[in-house]
Amino acid sequence: MILLVWGLACTLLGWFSGETFTDWELRATGGWEYNGYRLATLVRIEALVCLWTAVASVILNLKGFAWMYDRASNGLVNGLMYALLGISIAIELVALFMIHIISPACLINIVLIVMTIITMKQIDEERPSLKKAKRFRKEVK
């Protein structure tokens, strides 16, 4: 939810940054700049990261619960998490070393995915020691 609000804010900031396009060539002119990069382009990339995270989070949530409770395969969960982690690390490194800013959406992604990977490993280690729950039936006579 936080990234959804941040993505909408980035979209609005990119829209109202003062950047204009020519008619047919779609060349951007004007607008705000930060360290030689157009701010509208930077916030549009941030909004795309937020959109990708929102879509991936829904899939991860559904498949993660199926893995946790129904013992489904975690191949899709791991693949999607590592893809999102790789994209977030790459964008964060580019933002940090080339543009000298921090990308909040990518930083949140990195922290949450690392925490999820650690938690999933702990669950995999504990799962064999868990006993099945006893079910009681109460018969009314």
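[next item in queue]
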Amino acid sequence: MSTSSLSVFTSWPVFSGPAGTTITLARDPDIRAERFIQPQMGAAGLVFLTGALLWYFFHGASFGSMEMVLALGILTAFAAAGVLGAMVGAPSRRLAGANAETETQLRARMAAGERIAAWLLVVTVLCMAIARMV
């Protein structure tokens, strides 16, 4: 098994938690996303730390075509975390004192943020999967 496939298989279980939760929340807006934002962001931090360590151990200073694809995946993962923080984290903090109309608007924004982040994470997973083939 090559080191690139080892890095994908090693990071896959760590990454599948945040991606799976985000995709599930994006598909069902009735789930209360505000209950999951803290664990999602914590898992995202763990994934970034794990990815940085894997990059250091398996890729080092080389930057070929595989690393370019992985870098695209990293950028989309950072974008997904930013979208979650801006479109889910901020509205979830404003839910406490919101009336019914405002709550509906905030939940719609949170659902849209989960959908955007889910698509970005799909791109991230695809980059991890195809990186060793380019």
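[queue empty]
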